[in-house]
């Protein structure tokens, strides 16, 4: 198990919370909560050791240059593919009203 943390610039705190997915059999769970103003903070707990660069590239593609609300994102991963990660993040963002 490995725990990774990432931060990106953000706006004001989000107004909602979301929980999507579930941990188990190649999937993952994503929890979004309002964060500290100006910061999008991500914590990933993953069963795949040594994948930090892959996570960083995915988040950079998704979150750089976007006007996102301040969030705390917790991801519990059990070997999900990057496509599944992106899908779950997009579902959670849609759930809190950020398209």
UniProtKB/TrEMBL annotation:
| Cellular compartment(s) | Cytoplasm
Residue numbers bearing the O-(phosphoribosyl dephospho-coenzyme A)serine modification: 25
Primary localization class, coarse? cytoplasm
> What is an example of a GO molecular function annotated in this UniProt entry?
acyl carrier activity
Keywords attached to this Swiss-Prot or TrEMBL record, sorted alphabetically, are: Cytoplasm, Phosphoprotein
Modification after translation: Covalently binds the prosthetic group of malonate decarboxylase.
Q: Name one GO cellular component term.
A: cytoplasm
Which Pfam families does this UniProt record tie to the protein? ACP
| UniProt cross-references to HAMAP family, sorted A to Z | Malonate_deCO2ase_dsu (MF_00710)
**Per the similarity annotation, which family is this?**
Belongs to the MdcC family.
Q: What task does this protein carry out?
A: Subunit of malonate decarboxylase, it is an acyl carrier protein to which acetyl and malonyl thioester residues are bound via a 2'-(5''-phosphoribosyl)-3'-dephospho-CoA prosthetic group and turn over during the catalytic mechanism.
Protein's name according to its UniProt entry: Malonate decarboxylase acyl carrier protein
């Amino acid at each position: 198990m490995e725990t990774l943390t990432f931060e990106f610039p953000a706006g004001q705190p989000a107004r909602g919370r979301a929980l999507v997915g579930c941990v188990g059999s190649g999937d993952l769970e994503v929890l979004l909560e309002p964060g500290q103003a100006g910061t999008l903070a991500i914590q990933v707990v993953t069963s795949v050791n040594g994948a930090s660069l892959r996570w960083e590239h995915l988040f950079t593609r998704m979150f750089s240059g976007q006007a996102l609300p301040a969030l705390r994102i917790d991801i519990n991963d059990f070997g999900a593919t990057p496509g599944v990660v992106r899908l779950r993040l997009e579902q959670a963002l849609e759930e809190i009203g950020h398209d």
